[in-house]
Design goal:
The chain is an alpha+beta fold and 458 residues long. It folds into 2 domains: 264 residues, no CATH class; 143 residues, Jelly Rolls (Sandwich), CATH 2.60.120. It is 70% helix and 9% strand. The protein contains 18 helices and 8 strands. A 4-stranded antiparallel beta sheet has the order 1-8-3-6. Helix 1 packs across helix 15, helix 3 packs across helix 18 and helix 17 packs antiparallel against helix 18. The radius of gyration is 31 Å and the shape is elongated. The two termini are 24 Å apart. The relative contact order is 0.23.
């Protein structure tokens, strides 16, 4: 074990991650348009893809081709299998840890993950709305092609304790779907009953346009979904089926319709069909929403830091292990005197990591500033990760010199699997969203070729 070269590993680890604080400074001082950020992100993804393909996977795969004996070919095949297994484990491990970290607020570190979070939250909220609206037999007769319009037009209202939702004798121009809380319904001062979550208030008066037959008062804090009569009238004009259901409701009342089976009461099936009919809408959060999400997740800063560290751990270990393998091979070929740093640097790997880290830090720093983070806090986070990457490279060097080569191959496979999963799951989707597919494609190619070109220095 050549401990004298440990400082080289630490130096190279720091060099590959030096772009993190540099990128954060650029993100703090400059906010480029989305196309530029997307292009830079794709460029970094392409460079990182080249690094893992050339420096991690290719050498192990080429050992099979270069093997001249049956024993050597068998050993090379065993190593390649170890790498493939390691890659599968690395990808699965990355997804699992990334999911845990994102649930604590770590999703805020990447634009693509942030958009996915708000999009999923919006989809969940729309399903909740449909489930509440499905409490109305009338609503369940609304054609699925109108459901999208219904969800867009729904009003979400809050009523404090003792607030009056509607008064006896007033015009019935709005319907209420109780989401939470309790509403007392009285006629002539006498309590008729209480409405709770899932109940509907004012359905009949809405269809007929007649005056309210009772007064509804919130007995505690109440949340409702509501529609004005104009929307109902518009939907009735659009759909003969909906108009027929409305007329039937007026003629026979809701309870009678259910007992006779004239209306399908399979609410769950209707909800599933209604949700399926909705168009998926990608939600790009505003600065206020980003700050609100950051405040909702009290541990978001630590989760973001851990998430970024998760992205960088595989890279840092590989730098050290790759260096010790190169030094060992050089010593075996020409002796200790033949070892020089210039000939040992895995240029493609270092370049790929450097180029990938820069846009990631820049893009994430822009997002952190929008969340209300201070300049010093943002820079300190990225600088600390540079230190951690250096330490990780040193640990990778120590492990590489003290364990069997087969174990090193598994570690490289873990790193390759985690890095490729991260590129596909985070960097490329983010680049496509910000820059568009054409810019992403060309920038990814440029990054890949740029990292490959560093092979000319070796």
């Amino acid at each position: 074990m050549n401990y004298e070269y440990l400082s080289w590993a630490i130096l190279l680890g720091g060099l590959s991650a030096a772009s993190l604080p540099l990128g954060s400074i650029l993100g703090i001082c400059w906010q480029p348009n989305n196309r530029i950020v997307g292009g830079m992100t794709a460029f970094g993804g392409g460079a990182l893809f080249a690094a893992l393909a050339v420096e991690l996977v290719a050498p192990t795969a080429m050992q099979i081709v270069a093997a001249e004996t049956v024993l050597a070919k068998s050993e090379a095949s065993h190593h390649l299998i170890n790498m493939l297994i390691g890659a599968v484990i690395g990808g699965a491990l990355f997804v699992s840890l990334d999911t845990i970290i994102n649930s604590k607020g770590g999703f805020l570190r990447k634009t693509s993950a942030t958009i996915e979070y708000f999009t999923n939250r919006n989809a969940a909220r729309r399903r909740e709305i449909i489930e509440h609206l499905a409490g109305s037999e009338l609503i369940r007769h609304l054609p699925l092609d109108i459901v999208e319009d219904m969800v867009k037009k729904v009003n979400e209202k809050q009523f404090p304790t003792d607030a009056v939702l509607c008064e006896e004798g007033s015009v019935g121009n709005e319907v209420f779907f109780i989401e939470s809380g309790t509403v007392a319904v009285k006629r002539g001062g006498d309590l008729i009953g209480n409405l709770v979550s899932g109940d509907v208030l004012g359905e009949i008066a809405l269809v007929t346009g007649e005056v309210r037959t009772a007064t509804a008062t919130a007995t505690d804090d109440v949340s409702v979904l509501s529609f004005p009569k104009e929307d109902f009238d518009q939907w009735r004009a659009q759909s003969p089926e909906f108009e027929k259901a409305a007329a039937a409701l007026v003629a026979t009342r809701l309870k009678e319709l259910v007992e006779r089976g004239d209306i399908d009461t399979d609410t769950e099936q209707w909800v599933d069909q209604a949700v399926a009919s909705l168009m998926e809408v990608a939600v790009v959060p505003t600065d206020a929403q980003l700050q609100e999400a950051s405040e909702e997740h009290g541990g978001a800063p630590m989760a973001i830091w851990l998430g970024i560290l998760l992205d960088g751990i595989p890279e840092s270990f590989v730098i050290g292990s790759a260096l010790v393998v190169a030094i060992t091979a050089q010593i075996a070929a020409g002796g200790a005197d033949s070892v020089t740093l210039a000939t040992m640097i895995p240029y493609t790997l270092i370049a790929g990591l450097f180029l990938a880290n820069f846009p990631e830090a820049m893009s994430s720093s822009i997002g952190m500033r929008k969340q209300g983070w201070g300049v010093l806090k943002v820079f300190s986070m990225w600088f600390s990760l540079t230190i951690m990457t250096s330490i990780g490279a040193g640990i990778g060097y120590l492990l590489g010199g003290s364990v069997d080569h087969g174990i090193i191959v598994i570690i490289e496979g873990l790193a390759a699997g985690a890095m490729l999963t991260m590129i596909a799951a985070a960097m490329i989707p983010e680049a496509v969203h910000l820059g568009g597919s054409n810019i992403t494609g060309l920038a990814t190619l440029a990054g890949f070729l740029s990292a490959i070109a560093f092979k000319l220095l070796e």
